[in-house]
Amino acid sequence: GEKPQEHYVGWALRYHVNNTIRLALANAISLKPVSYHDCPSEFLFSDMYKDSTSHIDSATVEKSSVILRIASETGMGGLMGVFFALPGGLVGNIISGSNSWDSFGPTLAGMYTGYTFGSALGVYLIANGKKNGISFLGTLTSDIVGAGIGIGINQVSGQKGIGSLAPLILPVVAAIIYVELVE
Prior knowledge:
Layout: H1 5-29, H2 47-52, H3 58-96, H4 104-130, H5 136-156, H6 166-182
Helix pairs in contact: 1-3, 3-4, 3-6, 4-5, 4-6, 5-6
């Protein structure tokens, strides 16, 4: 019988992820940029596989592609934020000139600055790989605005419940809104 549309969407997502990984590897080992259209068909999937997904309407595949891109931006933004928070905290500690509890505030401020910069960079790297012409300065600015709103929500909520997570979530969300809707 006829297979449900969701089955084919799963195939389309796997197809998109595998092609993205293969193109990233091809770009990493070649001297000139490689696009999807430059690849020989044996480099991607077989023609039989392409034919098996040809009946999926393009709107369904596009929606799946956008969901995958936003999930990638979210994950990379969070990971890069954590990665940059550690050196940011170290810089804050060094600037404070103290190794006692007096350095806690500057260390925390350095960590949050590093997190904000790293999350903007993570979102930018994924978004710029899919859409050319995205501004890093715009992504960073929206990330900083999201951080400010997150800190405000955190203070208004009394640093309790979901409001306490706003400073970590909103910078990434604001950067994603910028690259997906503004740019």
